[in-house]
Each structure stands twice: as structure tokens, then as C-alpha cells.
Amino acid sequence: MVLASNAAMRKPRQFRKTYIRQWRDHRNLTLEQLADRLDVTPSYLSMLERAQRGYTQDTLEAIAEALQTDVASLLMRNPADPDAIWSVWDQAKPGEKRMIVDIAKTIVKTGT
């Protein structure tokens, strides 16, 4: 019986999940279009999106700029989630935003 080598049995290394793909979709960009903006290959960008490749702060900053968002959003915010608080916030008018903040402060302060 032939045993597979350890390397063949090893799962691909997984890096921290990001929302790069969701932000790219949100901005209606193809993998190729974003890769061109970043001067990287589509393959490299695809690996980042699938958490099969690590990233640097500089890479995240460049992607965030190209997608018109911030680094924190690339790491923590799915722009396609309509029930997320930031989606509600993004759709709120200035007066509504003040109300949202007041309500949130009240909930945090009183627990209700």
C-alpha cells in the first residue's frame, strides 16, 4: 500500500477571512478590473479573496482605496448584509443618525 505524502494530505493554509470579494461585488467590479487597478494578477487577488494568501497592511490599504472604503470595513463589514447596523446607518439621513446614536447610547447605558 502506498501512503500519500504529508504535503499532499495537508490542507491549504487558510488566512484570516476578509470581505474583499463582497466589497468588489458591491462596487460592481470584476476580479480583472480590480486587479488592474491594483497592478496585481487576478489570480493573486482571487487567492486573497478566498483567504488562501496572506496580506500586508499596504495591500489592504491599496485595496480599500481602490474600493472606496476603509481597511476596517474590508476586515469586518459585509456591505451586502442589509440587516447589519452599518447598512442601516448608511441609509439613514443626518437627523435619523442622531436618533440612532441617542437610542444606542440609551441601550448601552440602561440595558433596555
What does this molecule look like?
This protein is an all-alpha fold and 112 residues long. 60% of the residues lie in helices and 0% in strands. The chain contains 8 helices and no strands. Helix 3 crosses helix 4. The radius of gyration is 19 Å and the shape is elongated. The termini are far apart. The model has no long low-confidence stretch (mean pLDDT 90).
Outline of this structure?
The chain is mostly helical. Helix content is 60%, strand content 0%.
- On the 0-100 scale, what is the average pLDDT? 90
Q: Provide the helix percentage.
A: 55-70%
| Succession of helices and strands | HHHHHHHH
Low-pLDDT windows of residues: none
Query: Beta-sheet strand percentage?
Result: under 5%
From the alpha carbons, calculate the radius of gyration and give it in angstroms: 19 Å
Number of strands: 0
Structural class: mainly alpha
Largest sheet: none
Distance between the termini: 65 Å
What is the number of helices? 8
